[in-house]
């Protein structure tokens, strides 16, 4: 049964517990295994990939089978329904349209004395995209990760995903990859796939940046290789926080909470409401909707451990509690959602009003569904086109301009004890001492 | 003596060696120590900070002495020259002016059927800024890290820096901090300072994001705590790559290479030139300028291990080699620098023409001097106002708009096996099955 809490102090404590639910101890425990996998792939390349694919995914591959072939890619289109293809294409179009908004552009500005300053934006050369297998093999994940890379004009978008039974990969995932502009796909998953992308093997190219969600091994591998290559974020289990007033519909709120909980036994679903009656109705509705739920066991576990309803005295209090939690997804199921938005400081994505279930953003509204979890919204944002780009500062000084600042630079270099820094300006403005 | 290489294959190999000069083994070796420090600070707070400050910095502090007092901050202004204050203020103004360009702004767009999509930008609540002590205690580091945070409107900018002899902190650093808008300063350094910022102690507030350079222990601590809080990057030793043609002045080029080498025995200084005569002159000039260099021993070490001149057949080849290296600083000491810029794909900052020594950007041109090192320019950028901000996606659908996409979402949720995702849309558009 979904708990209802009425004391704010207790709500604060519980929200903190839920936010910190990813166990650091469990992570440390698995680190040795992941380090071993990374080292093996670094040293032995494809050979290690095939070894771990047999060990962890129970699939025996040859090196030639690592790469998904053109005929398999073509065949995927025959294996999904016309309706699913249409839906994937609609989602791809909308996601692409949103990501094309405000793509960073290179710029320069011209100052006094012919000084030129600016920023030049360029895409990474190669992006690696991890797509989980099994229960979490989602075409939407592919779209949300590959489309920003495509919009950023990344020349090579390399996808990895573990093979299922009979070495197969979900055809919907293969179709989504093609629609989203992925340039090559490899049949490998887990920490070994991250290692392959980070170091390169005979078959898989080394990339510059790795994005995409995964299990604890994948996340740990991403953390360990960070610095050799870039990563998007360290994704934890998913979460939704809903702020609702008496205008909210308990049936919708309950469905939205379950839509989060059904992802993962570690997923979190939280409701903060000013309305005690709504709280009780949502509690009953969650039970009712769970009754015949196809993923009941898993979903119930999430609701029991990381589900929560808290009664709050005002929407302002709800906003403050939400800011402390910094949710991945925040739904404002209230009469005037835009009035509360300005009080929200930290949230991955904000869904406003009663006709905006999180699912609309998960699939096709346009904004990215790869969002900061576990409180990371305090400092991080959705995956975006910027994730796949970087900029170089541009600086050009003229002799006149350099002359004007030479004295100040000289004083600063002396204060910092860096004589050649000073000389590099002095020689240009005053000539070489021997001259 | 600075080596000259004439074969391109050898140049490629050497550039790779230099780019990968940070030893992963050395890092692993120190990880146990850093983990222990992090754990101790997490458990014991201030007590652990005082313990490690005595052990590593030889300074015995009371908890009250951790925070730099108002009178010490005031006194710092009396301890530096008027000229240095002026120079710090000039640098602060120019850095701030540059960082005020193109600060991200929140936006919304209105689509068909009353769909609203957008992004809301907000600053982090608290930023932590690490400033090294001893030889590398630089006021410019303070400006370059604190000013973007100030421009981003971060409410609390918390600085940490280790105490020197007699518990003192470089007064120029204290002045720079005040000019740049730092809100509080604590006298603690090393991995223990990073732990304090990440977990909070009785005296030091927990922050959301930690920026700033440091030694190997600081960098390792940043990597380990990443995920609990955000970090800017994992800074390695500094580097410059200079592309020069026959128009370049060997005296300037040599001074610029030494200005990099004098930072650190691990710093790298590379010249790629089409002109054999220039190569020889630079080689001699480096010797000459090293002769009476106040930091000769350290600087010679860097030049010997990570200094290099390579003769290339064309500027295009130089650009390609530079892209493979992805330098932190790139100087184009060539007749037509803007013609080559478009061939540069990866570089932290690009300095164009003969009157733009790197030092002008290090101190006061405006762009940030905190730049990606060790090849990280392939995926990362300069520290910027964006580093201290994050965005929330905004999504609002109307009932009409939701109706139009309900079918497509339904098909996608079925393909992904997530029934409550489907229900959350179905209940809103078709009503509850029991109704």
UniProtKB/TrEMBL annotation, chains A, B:
Binding site residues for substrate: 238, 260, 263, 329, 362, 416, 421
Pfam families linked: Histidinol_dh (PF00815)
Binding site for Zn(2+): 260, 263, 362, 421
Entry-linked CDD domains: Histidinol_dh (cd06572)
Keyword line: Amino-acid biosynthesis, Histidine biosynthesis, Metal-binding, NAD, Oxidoreductase, Zinc
Annotated catalytic residues: 328 (proton acceptor), 329 (proton acceptor)
Molecular function GO labels: histidinol dehydrogenase activity; NAD binding; zinc ion binding
Residues holding NAD(+): 130, 192, 215
Pathway as given in its UniProt record: Amino-acid biosynthesis; L-histidine biosynthesis; L-histidine from 5-phospho-alpha-D-ribose 1-diphosphate: step 9/9
EC number(s) given by UniProt: 1.1.1.23
Broad class of enzyme this protein falls into: oxidoreductase
InterPro entries linked: Ald_DH/histidinol_DH, Histidinol_DH_CS, Histidinol_DH_monofunct, Hstdl_DH
UniProt record, GO biological process: L-histidine biosynthetic process
Catalytic function, reaction form: L-histidinol + 2 NAD(+) + H2O = L-histidine + 2 NADH + 3 H(+)
Cofactor(s) the record lists: Zn(2+)
One CC-aspect GO term: cytosol
Cofactor comment: Binds 1 zinc ion per subunit.
Protein's job: Catalyzes the sequential NAD-dependent oxidations of L-histidinol to L-histidinaldehyde and then to L-histidine.
Family per similarity comment: Belongs to the histidinol dehydrogenase family.
Protein name: Histidinol dehydrogenase
Species for this entry: Limnofasciculus baicalensis BBK-W-15
């Amino acid at each position: 049964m979904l708990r209802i809490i009425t004391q704010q102090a207790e709500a604060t404590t519980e929200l903190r517990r839920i936010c910190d639910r990813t166990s650091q101890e469990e992570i440390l425990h698995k680190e040795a295994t992941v380090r071993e996998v990374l080292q093996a792939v670094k040293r032995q390349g494809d050979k290690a990939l095939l070894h771990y694919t047999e060990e962890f995914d129970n699939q025996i591959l040859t090196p030639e089978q690592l790469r998904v072939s053109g005929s398999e890619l073509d065949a995927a289109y025959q294996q999904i329904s016309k309706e699913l293809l249409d839906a994937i294409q609609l989602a791809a179009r909308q996601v692409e349209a949103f990501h094309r908004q405000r793509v960073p552009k290179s710029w320069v500005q011209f100052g006094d004395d012919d000084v030129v300053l600016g920023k030049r934006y360029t895409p990474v050369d190669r992006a690696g995209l991890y797509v989980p297998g099994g229960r979490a093999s989602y075409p939407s994940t592919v779209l949300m990760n590959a489309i920003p890379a495509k919009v950023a004009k990344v020349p090579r978008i390399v996808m990895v995903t573990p093979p299922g039974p009979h070495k197969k990969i979900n055809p919907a995932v293969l179709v989504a990859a093609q629609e989203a502009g992925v340039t090559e796909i490899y049949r490998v998953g887990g920490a070994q796939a991250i290692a392959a992308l980070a170091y390169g093997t005979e078959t898989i190219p080394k990339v510059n940046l790795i994005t995409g969600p995964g299990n604890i091994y994948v996340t740990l591998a991403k953390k360990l290789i960070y610095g050799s290559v870039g990563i998007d974020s360290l994704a934890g289990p998913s979460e939704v926080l809903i702020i609702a007033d008496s205008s909210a519909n308990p049936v919708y709120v309950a469905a939205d909470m379950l839509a989060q909980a059904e992802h993962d036994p570690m997923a979190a679903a939280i409701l903060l409401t000013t309305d005690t009656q709504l709280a009780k109705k949502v509690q009953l509705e969650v039970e009712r909707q769970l009754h015949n739920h196809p993923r009941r066991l898993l979903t119930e576990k999430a609701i029991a451990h990381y589900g929560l309803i808290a009664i709050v005295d005002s929407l302002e209090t709800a906003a403050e509690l939400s800011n402390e939690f910094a949710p991945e997804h925040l739904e404002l199921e209230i009469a005037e959602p835009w009035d509360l938005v300005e009080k929200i400081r930290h949230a991955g994505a904000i869904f406003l009003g009663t006709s905006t279930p999180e699912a609309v953003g998960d699939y096709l509204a346009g904004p990215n569904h790869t969002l900061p979890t576990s409180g990371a919204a305090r400092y991080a944002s959705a995956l975006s086109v910027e994730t796949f780009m970087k900029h170089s500062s541009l600086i050009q000084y003229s002799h006149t301009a350099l002359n004007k600042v030479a004295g100040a630079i000289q004083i600063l270099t002396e204060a910092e004890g860096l004589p050649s820094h000073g000389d590099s300006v002095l020689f240009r403005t005053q000539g070489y001492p021997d001259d």
